[in-house]
Design brief:
alpha/beta, 12 helices, 2 domains, two-stranded antiparallel ribbon, Aminopeptidase, 425 residues, 10 strands
């Protein structure tokens, strides 16, 4: 079954009442604030409005915690690496050792900042402010465990190469990355062999051709990297799927437990959280864990259910971990989520996040139980991190099933806790 293209008129269907509410919220935030790039004024203003939504949903105060972010220091730095690669290639034809140093610097930066989300080179980029939100509902006076529903409200820069041919985008990106390592090796080889400028243009041997032609072959890769994404906020992703759909599900869970207090065990706390600047390298989740890891008053035996992108009917996923971040999430929660998906009538898919990372990574690194749930095609698409991530293209089926999934999985957590088999026992 292909992903359904539901129109706004369909959202009034009695079959999808929670999807209707979710889409209304998503449309309001997008229409009011537009794209919400990490650390932008639009992100800040949208989170201010979402804070009011959180307080209405839980019936309690909502805490807002500000943190500093360097928006362009990770994924946002990809074009800069392309520009630097172009410059280093030009330098290569003048001085091999200078080019080698430049390519090593670019490669080191890319691995640290873009692949592993380290903060080593953040100081090179301007600062901005971002923030996290959280609000809770307590079942009673003595809390033994917490279920945290979290999502991120910010959006991505437009991935230019994905708009028309997303599969080709991957090829171009890999070609550009390969070019960095090839140019590292070529510049080093020239330096070691003493193949200087005078030899480079003589073409007296096969090495002359290799040292001269190969950089030209890989040069387009750096051009593609430089055009990988646009920093123009006017064409940034509106973030309907990624990830207002997750924020909407957080609100739906809070509304459910506030309206049905008998469904919330007396020893359970429900917390909903919005983690800012996820697209800048998981900075909100990282800041949240820095502030609250070990907080035994707020995070009492917490189960973190991170919600990230619900749109594609045939791709309900249990994310096992982030490959680039070298993390693996909680196996017991993965199994429980897969069982819940089967019970609500959708096929579960176990996937490792192939690129980047998700907000479960900083959480699992602190030793907490976590899983990331989604309904998203794991391959490149024209609507992931592009201006095509619009509310009108969401699937009501996916939103409604996401709601059912979270209720089913919550019930499973309630049951193992009631049976004395909680994951923190």
């Amino acid at each position: 079954m292909e992903n359904k293209d539901f129109s706004s008129a369909d959202t009034g269907s009695k079959e999808y009442p929670h999807a209707k509410e979710a889409r209304s919220f998503i449309k309001r935030i997008i229409d009011t604030h537009g794209p919400r790039l990490p650390g932008s004024q639009e992100e800040w203003d949208a989170v201010t409005e979402i804070k009011t939504d959180f307080e209405k949903a839980t019936g309690s105060d909502c805490a807002r915690e500000e943190f500093t972010v360097h928006p362009n220091a990770s994924i946002g730095a990809i074009p800069y690496c392309g520009y630097a690669g172009i410059l280093a290639t030009a330098v290569y034809f003048v001085n091999e050792w200078a080019a080698f140093a430049m390519f090593i610097a670019i490669t080191t930066f890319a691995i640290a900042q873009i692949f592993f989300y380290r903060n080593w080179f953040n100081f090179l980029f301007p600062k901005a402010k971002s923030s996290n939100l959280y609000s809770s509902i307590d079942g009673g006076d003595k809390i033994d465990y917490t279920i945290v529903f979290s999502a991120h409200p910010d959006t991505s820069w437009n991935w230019n190469l994905a708009l028309k041919k997303p599969t080709l985008m991957i090829v171009k990106l890999l070609f550009g990355v390969a070019g960095l390592f090839v140019m590292d090796a070529l510049a080093l080889a020239r330096g070691i062999t003493g193949h200087g400028i005078s030899q480079l243009y003589t073409f007296g041997s096969a090495w002359d051709y290799i040292f001269f032609i190969v950089p030209i072959v890989f040069f387009p890769g750096f051009l593609w990297i430089s055009n990988y994404l646009s920093h123009d906020k006017k064409i940034a992703s509106p973030g309907a799927m990624d990830n207002l759909s997750g924020i909407a599900m957080c609100l739906a869970m809070a509304n459910y437990y506030r309206e049905n207090p008998e469904k919330l065990p007396k020893n359970c706390r429900i917390t909903i959280a919005a983690m800012g600047s996820e697209e800048a390298g998981l900075k909100g989740s990282e800041a949240f864990m820095k502030a609250h890891a070990g907080d035994k008053e707020m995070l009492i035996n917490p189960y973190f259910l991170n919600l990230d992108s619900f749109r594609d009917d045939e791709h309900f996923g249990c994310v096992k971990g982030d490959i680039w971040q070298l993390t693996h999430f909680t196996d017991e929660l993965l199994d429980m989520a897969a069982a819940s998906m089967t019970e609500i009538g959708v096929k579960p898919h176990f996937i490792y996040n192939p690129v980047g990372g998700c907000d479960s990574t900083p959480i699992v690194r602190k030793g907490y139980k976590t899983i990331t749930l989604c309904a998203q095609n794991p391959t490149a698409t024209t609507y992931y991190h592009t201006k095509n991530d619009r509310e009108e293209d969401l699937s009501d089926f996916s939103l409604e099933k996401a709601y059912e999934l979270l209720l089913n999985l919550s019930d499973k957590i309630h049951k193992i806790e009631a049976d004395g088999k909680g994951l923190y026992k």
